[in-house]
Amino acid sequence: MKNNLKFLPLLLIGTWILAFSCQNAPDNKQNQTPDYAKIYKENFKPEKKEVQAILDNLSSYGMGAENTGQQDSLKAALELYEKGDYKPAQVALNAYVEAYPDDNIGKFYLGMCLMDMDLSSKAINLLLPLTELPDFELRDEATWYTALSYLILTGNTGIMNAKKYLTILANNSGSSYQEEAKIMLDQHFS
Fold this sequence. Notes:
mainly alpha; single chain; globular; Serine Threonine Protein Phosphatase 5, Tetratricopeptide repeat
C-alpha cells in the first residue's frame, strides 16, 4: 500500500497539468485558416438581376438606331449568358470585347463567364478596372465579384485584396452588397 501512495502525488500533478492544458488550449476554430475556395463557391452566383434590364433596354432600340450590329452582338451574347450557357456566352463576349474594347458591359459579363469557369485571375483583369469607373452602372457588382475572385487566388496578396474590396463595399452605404460584405469580413477576416 505504501508503494502505491508514492505515485499519488505524481498522479495528482499529472491530472492537474492535463486539466489545465485542456482548459487553456487554443480554440482550433479561431486559429484555422478559412477555406476561401468554399467561401467563394458559397457566395458566387452569376449576376442575373441587371442582365435582364440590359437585355430589355437592348430590345427596345429601334431599327433606325445607331450601332445596331454592336447592340445585336451584345444582345445575342447576353441572351446566352442569361440562359446559363456560360461557355458559348464567353466565346461570344470575347469576340464582342475584341470588336468593341471600350464596352464595359461586355467586359463585365465576360468577367462573369470567366468566374463561372474558375478563371478568376482572368476575370480580375477585366473586372478590376471597372471598379475604378465612378459612372459605371455595374461598379458595385464589379467590386463584389472582384473581391470574390481575389478570394481564390493563392497567397496573401489575393486575400489582402479580397479584404480591401470587401471593406470598400462594407463602408459604402449605397452598396447593395454592404451587408454581405460586412458579414463576410466579420466571419472570415476579423
